[in-house]
Structure prediction request, 101 residues.
Amino acid sequence: MKFTTSIIALCIAFASVEASDLKYCNADGCLRALLPTRDLSRFEAGAAFCATYLAAIPPRTDISGAPPTATKSCGSSPQRYSSACTCIPPLPTPVVKEAAS
Prediction:
């Protein structure tokens, strides 16, 4: 169920992003290696890596912490990781409402 929810949230996020926001996205084998849709643990690891990779200021120039399966497809080029991670739109933050007392 958690995996299905993650996929649905990702699809909704993709649908809400304009094409101009994805101008540096290269949806290639590197992206598929970072976010394999058939393996929840690898999907979550790739998403977590991309979240921290893109949040770094200044931009990261190393690939430390990349999932091992991604390094086989992406190589050692930070540009490949940056491009693949840019394909993933930021997921909306869920709002948790407290129950009224």
Q: What stands out?
A: The longest helix spans residues 40-55. The radius of gyration is 15 Å.
